[in-house]
Task: structure prediction
Amino acid sequence: MSSLTPQSRATASALILLSFLFFPTLAAAHTVGLSWDASTSQDVVGYNIYRGPSANGPFIRINATLNVPTNYADSTVQGGETYFYVTTAVDSQKNESDYSNQTQATIPGGGSGSEQGLYNFAGGTDPKFPYAGLVFDKAGNLYGTTQLGGANSQGTVFAVTHNSDGSWTETILYSFTGSADGAQPSAGLIFDASGNLYGTTNFGGSGSCNLGCGTVFKLTPASGGWTETVLYTFTSGSDGREPYARLLFDAAGNLYGTTLLGGNVNSVCSTGCGTVFKLTSASGGWTESVLYAFTGAADGASPYDGLAFDSAGNLYGTAYTAGAAGSGVIFKLSSGSSGWTESVLHAFKGGYDGKYSYGDIILDAAGNLYGTAFQGGAKGYGVVFQLAPGSKGGWLEKVLHSFGNSPSANPVAGLVMDPAGNLYGTTLAGGNQTSCGAACGTLFKLAPTSTGVWTYTPIHVFGHGTDGYHPSGDLILDAAGNLYGTTQAGGAQGSGLVFEIMH
Result:
């Protein structure tokens, strides 16, 4: 050994960044991404990476040739194993330093349900409380919103980008101020074809609301960062207030969404029963029109979720309260010469069929609708439902799964469907983990069978250590079938988590 000082020594957290990757050619393969500080010795030409089965070794070199960069990806690890790593610095005379400080990586055991925490939110000036789900860009990077945190504690838009060594980096694209630009977004984002992002904020803007009535905004990328533009500010009048849901584009580039409140103010809804709105772009800016204002009667009230188009241009959604039994409705909006007409496809009775639907509706190729209800079902802890057109007209609801208190309870997010027709979703509670009052939440799968019965499988139970808890946003799928989402709380720093679940 030479007298080379291994300047790559640092604290374990600074020396090693740990991550896991999925390779489509290998079922649930993992990669440990290692990085370290560069040596300040003048003659260092590269590094060796050693791995051992315990803290005492023996350590075996795993790089075939001298590693010049200060990072390395070990893709030979096996699920369920723990590995210990050290590095050395090598000079031009092939002298090698002592081992650096040591770090370890524990690999999740196997495929389905293995979780990788991509980013742990810290709160404060970092984002906090990611309520909504995520969206991919064309490169596979993730984008989302948080209700709190950021420079002004009024929420953020963030990106989590994938690095070549397997790690992920978080960037705050915009911090809301709580004034005219908006505050506390609860909805996810959508991209247009040019790479601009669109979303809503619950509060901020202006109007007669205490914290502001909410906004629709656009974020445009530029060389110096992202620029926010407010497309519309709600006033709390007939135009609506407090949009909580993700927006939707039509083919012409118009935006559609819902507001939880505003619209019709009456004895049922003192602050309005909510609206479905459209934003149309013109040379002078964006113009809002209300397609439907709920009355709080049989037509429903307070649409919390977003909308879905069918191939004919009809819109579908849910209102989480009112309706014939006061438990919410599933509705359809159809466009005609005299405007848009609402029809109630199903009014929840509040019993076995479900009660209070908060999550987005999705459609399959046959025109069936799928969603979740927060309560109701056989045991009162919510359901996953299908709504299908009947052969003699009307729509028929079928409960695909009723949640009990264990292992899963109370879904608030919508569903995602894979190419095979399997459904995936989350529950806010359940799981029996003591770290969050036995109600940390779960991620589940529902698979159709030839008999018409759907098979329920819990894939992941949240609340283990620092993996986060209380998922409330919609999931998204990558091409390999892995699932991505957020938890409101938990993670290594307690302010929420961006996660990947391998499946």
The chain has a mean pLDDT of 89. The CA atoms of residues 203 and 210 lie 9 Å apart.
